[in-house]
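Supplementary Methods S3. Complex input for the calcium ion-bound model.
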Amino acid sequence: FAIMPVRDASTVEQNRRASWFSHKSETAKPYYYQVYLADHDINVEIAPADRAAAMMFTYPAGEVSGVVVDAYDEGSYIKVLPEKQAIIGYTTKNCGGVPDNFRNWFVVKFDKPFESTMVYDGPAKGLGEALEFEGNHALASVGFRTQRDEKVNIKVASSFISLEQAWLNLEEVGDKTFAQVKFQAKDRWNDILSRIQIGGGSEEQYRTFYSCLYRATLFPRKFYEINSNGTPVHYSPYDGQVHNGYLYTDTGFWDTFRALFPLLNLVYPSVNKEIQQGLANIARENRFLPEWASPGHRGCMVGNNSASVVADAILKGITPEEDWQTLYDCIVYGTENVHPTVNSSGRLGHEYYNSIGYIPYNIGIHESVARTLEYAYDDWCILQLARKMGRPETEFSKWESRSGNWRNVFDPSHNLMRGRNADGTFQEPFSPYKWGGAFTEGNAWHYTWSVFHDVDGLAEAMGGKEVFAQMLDSVFVVPPIYDDSYYGYRIHEITEMQVANMGNYAHGNQPAQHMIYLYNWAGQPWKTQKWVREVMDRLYSATPDGYCGDEDNGQTSAWYVFSALGFYPVCPGSDEYAVGAPLFKKAVVHLENGCDLEINAPDNGPENRYVRGMKVNCSRWNESFFKHKHLAAGAVIDFNMTSDCHPER
Ligand code: CA
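Predicted complex, serialized as structure tokens:
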């Protein structure tokens, strides 16, 4: 729903009420937004709470100043409550895939009495004296006289549960002044962003780092609310009912299993604990975990990477044990079924994959190699879970064998992943430059590395570490040419690869984002260090063009946060991080268990631009935390347990 302050309360239609504004007269901070609306001569300020916000409008002198509240079309309701100085209602606007009873209820409360009100049945049809309307497009405006520079405060809250709950959510801002809401939000963001402290870098690097950390902590979003007893409750976009407990939404696991969830597990485990409890709730509310929740199942991307997200959290001790079995059963169910209406949840092509070990290229299931590779990694994650949960050993062989299914789409004649037909022959014609087809938003150069769990096996299949390293080198060496015939046009991810001028390396999209770290497995860690620095220095900045592609729910930001710290979770579900090149001379991660992870990386001098020694005081893990700790000569990795932190904490 929209809230728009206007200089004339009768201008309700969206193109008429719209205003020019400039980014030069705008302030955007995590906890505060301000913009000057030139056509209305109104300054707007907003400060957030979790499910509510405070807004302050500074008006010019006017007889008919006002505010428009638009609940939009395709089903909405609005009611003006003059005695309460409030407007209430609901909108049903959504991205699709929600039950018919989906409602976003809202309450907008003013600190100034209304001198006029008008409720509309669509923007062109005012309803005279009526104070409410329910129908296709409900809208309302309220008017009042204002002095020059008069400030009108409103408080707004919404709920996916009920109008009563929306009033309850309004208590988050309650009687607080605008400044109080603003400074509470500032404190909240400072708490979140100060969990990692950095030093020994440039002002630009600090801005980039914290901009990335900010975006990495925006998603997924809380979809649960707190009821009058103070306990979490949620409307389920999976069964349309209201249930007890947590629920989060707005994340695509295809993107975020890679680094975003591992970052939450490291720095914000209490948040991911709630997210995992929410996933267990989803498993109770329907048979599938979402792969692209927005807010319910959404048909987008491929893979079954909820297995990775769940496994990594359980293996790292985040998820309450009472939820393990529910989650495990749901994941296993998803390996043998596909959602009846949203085929990106569960596993499309499971019949083929589970019988012949891959999804054939020529049977009408698009992106068959991407699916096969991700299912194989997901099966490895399930194997880790099965072991952790003490499942019968007889079950292990199934997951173990399926986790090797990446071999079925590996073509040794090219040392690349390649579409494979049902009869076992490889796809013809084959071009490693062809995006899509057998792959998802990428090509064979990008997807060949999607064997997160068996990098050594992949290197061996290619003929050893030397060849493996040459293949990695080739990604950067081959020209940034492409075949976009699968899409019929050049998708933006292709453009982003081209303009970066790193050959076929495509950091602007997720499939290859772990690739640089694989040089560690080839025994050539200096190339990891070089390319990690190149990407951090060239492709990230704290400016409007500061990302080289879609940011994607925190994933591309989490890559930077980890990389700047000097390590990266190549294989979520394992307890290994691959070492890169710390960007800052010092970094401290304040862990929620009260201990600090301290990274000291003194500069090794100008002739050794990329390589820094890395001394890690690691209070939570032992040395196995960093398995691939090869660094060039002169570099140091040191592990110290701080004496006041017991490792089991
Ligand atoms: Ca993407």
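The radius of gyration is 27 Å. The chain has 18 helices and 30 strands.
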